[in-house]
Amino acid sequence: MKNGNNPGLAQARAKSIAKAATVFLLPALLLITIYIIYPVIDTFVISGYKWNGISSDRIFVGMENWVSLIHDEMFWKSFKHNLIVMVFSILLQIPLGMLLATFLDAGGKKFNIFKIIWFLPYLMSSVAIAFLFVYALATNGGIVSSLATIIHGKKTTIDLLGTAPNALYTVIGVMAWQFTPFYMVYFIAGYGNIDTSIYEAAIIDGATRWQYIKRIAIPLLGPIFKTACTMSLIGSLKYFDMIWNMTQGGPAGSTELMATYMYKLSFQQFNMGYGSAVAAGMFLLITAIALIFNKAFKVKEEY
Amino acid sequence: MVNSNMSDADYRKSKIKSRVAWGVAIFFACIWLLLTLTPFFFMIINSFRKQFDMLQQGVFHLPDPWYFKNYTNVVTHGFFGYFMRSVLVVAVSLVLMLIISAFAAYPLARMNFKLNPIIYALIVAMMSVPMHVTLIPIFKLTTAVGLYDTLRSLIGPYVAFALPMSVFILTAFMKTIPKEVEESAEIDGCNRYQNFFKMILPLSKSGLSTLAIYNGVSMWNEFAFANTLLITPERKTLPLALGQFKGEHSLDIPIILAVLTLSVLPMITLFIIFQDKLVKGMMAGAVKG
């Protein structure tokens, strides 16, 4: 007899499943509630107060922080920097990663050494990369300035991180150095997922390796291309570690991003009420942009 | 014969063309190789210099003499402590995270109950919450429960933020395990809990190991929570060691470069040993998009 034929038995079974599911899910749901859901809500709550983060008295100010946020030039400037970083990340990291992957896919095993070395930057943490490039790009004893000195034959300094318009683009360059390997490996995996019979059929039909890549493989990579763009987009909007350790948003706020601005307000100036408003604003902007992007490009699910 | 001559010429032409194309490609490949390696080269050779030799000798010259004291200085001045604290936090967080996410993935993948799709959607949606948004409330919470400035304060956030993606991946993974596995276990008298520990968990090993690598690397490198929740140097983790050493030796660049080299070394060693597995693990985050 099937369980469904006996309502009492089916009910008992459903009950025991519900009990087991609760036991198994409880720890995860508890942690997610405490450390993700509650904090997100609390960020919005704190944004209604004036609070230094330490003393127990906090003053309710209503929408005051939000009104300041909307008129805060520094916040919108940071947001603009985030958008610049986003555009250049997508324009640099993804095509470069794609080119490197194409080279490796076309070249086969004999270029393995390229693959290994190209991957190295992604093994470094953002913090380590920040420190390394502070010294590597320093005007005194840095790589670029030393090279310029050798080429010029006399002491030359190129200030990449210390002056306003340069710094943001320098940071974008360092990000490309860090993340291009990630997209390279991502696209290598994409090439690897294409059925070998497609390649064989193309070769039998007289296509060269290059024609195969250009006409067949790259169009087949379309969906993972979109996923790569989404990753880069969200990653650039919440970028923090490297900038914080490299420039702290400076010089003169020229590399300030939403996350560094929030951190500075909250944990250096201890203006946590307003810092929370910035964090909440950042959350709303990131969510909105991600939704718009997904709608506009209808990223297909591939699993 | 004209025809065959033509195609012969064409063939030769296309061969030359492809040779030229490869030449150009290899040229650019080497440029990217140089761009990748130069900062590493700079870091390593300059970490073997005395403080003032860097500017006098030029940064591209090999050190003369090779100076090893930077490394002994770093190792005897607390580097090992930072390293061990990081090992401890990552190990505890990782084990907890793997158990809890496997727990959560099991009913989501293999049990039929009303709330299943809602809970699954809720957990998956948490993948896109940026941790920076939670920083102030978590700081508040940590001070309120008296965990501020302890290593333990990091475990909660580390586990919680790794959960959504891990549950997502493990749920997909456990769905691929055939139903018969559980049914035969049930016939043998296993209940759901025994089923999970004896059958499902061992069969999910490869999914778990990928997640261990991905989350292990990101916890190992985690900066923002650690920088917010820890203040005493003797309690800080490895990503904060760089800032700490820089504060103490602000003008001694070679010693900071030695700290950098030492902090990168574990990852490069692991990469050399477990190349493909490590790369695959580090790419697990790609599902986040």
Main attributes of the structure:
heterodimer, A: 303 residues, mainly alpha, two-stranded antiparallel sheet, 2 strands, B: 289 residues, 13 helices, flat
General shape of chain B: flat
Helix content of chain A: over 70%
Task: Report the uncertain regions of chain B.
Answer: none
The strands making up the biggest β-sheet of chain A line up spatially as 1-2
Detail the poorly predicted runs of chain A: none
In oligomeric terms, what are we looking at? Answer: heterodimer
Rg value of chain B: 26 Å
Beta-strand fraction estimate of chain A: under 5%
Overall average pLDDT of chain A: 89
Question: What is the chain-wise order of helices and strands of chain B?
Answer: HHHHHHHHHHHHH
- Beta content of chain B: under 5%
The largest β sheet of chain B comes out as: none
Number of contiguous helices of chain A: 13
In total, the number of strands of chain B is: 0
Provide the structure class of chain A.
mainly alpha
Order of SSEs of chain A, N→C?
HEEHHHHHHHHHHHH
Number of helices of chain B: 13
Radius of gyration of chain A: 26 Å
Number of strands of chain A: 2
Shape of chain A: flat
Largest sheet of chain A: 2 strands, antiparallel
Quick recap:
Helix content of chain A is about 75%, strand content about 0%. By secondary structure, chain A is an all-alpha fold. In chain A, strand 1 (about 50) and strand 2 (about 60) form a beta hairpin.
Can you give a write-up of this model?
The complex is a heterodimer of chains A (303) and B (289). Chain A has a two-stranded antiparallel sheet with strand order 1-2. Helices cover 73% and strands 1% of the residues of chain A. Chain A is an all-alpha fold and 303 residues long. Chain A has helices at residues 7-46, 64-70, 73-107, 112-119, 126-136, 143-152, 164-193, 196-204, 209-220, 222-237, 241-246, 258-267, 272-297, and strands at residues 49-50, 59-60. The model of chain A has no long low-confidence stretch (mean pLDDT 89). The longest helix of chain A has 40 residues, at 7-46. Chain A is flat, with a radius of gyration of 26 Å. In chain A, helix 1 crosses helix 13, helix 10 runs antiparallel to helix 13 and helix 12 (258-267) runs antiparallel to helix 13. Chain B contains 13 helices and no strands. Chain B has helices at residues 2-46, 53-57, 69-110, 116-125, 135-144, 152-175, 179-187, 192-203, 205-220, 224-229, 238-248, 253-273, 275-282. Chain B has 289 residues and is mostly helical. The model of chain B has no long low-confidence stretch (mean pLDDT 89). Chain B starts with a helix and ends in a 7-residue tail after the last helix. The longest helix of chain B is centred in the first third of the chain and has 45 residues, at 2-46. Chains A and B meet through helix 1, helix 3, helix 4, helix 5 and helix 6 of A and helix 1, helix 3, helix 4, helix 5 and helix 6 of B.
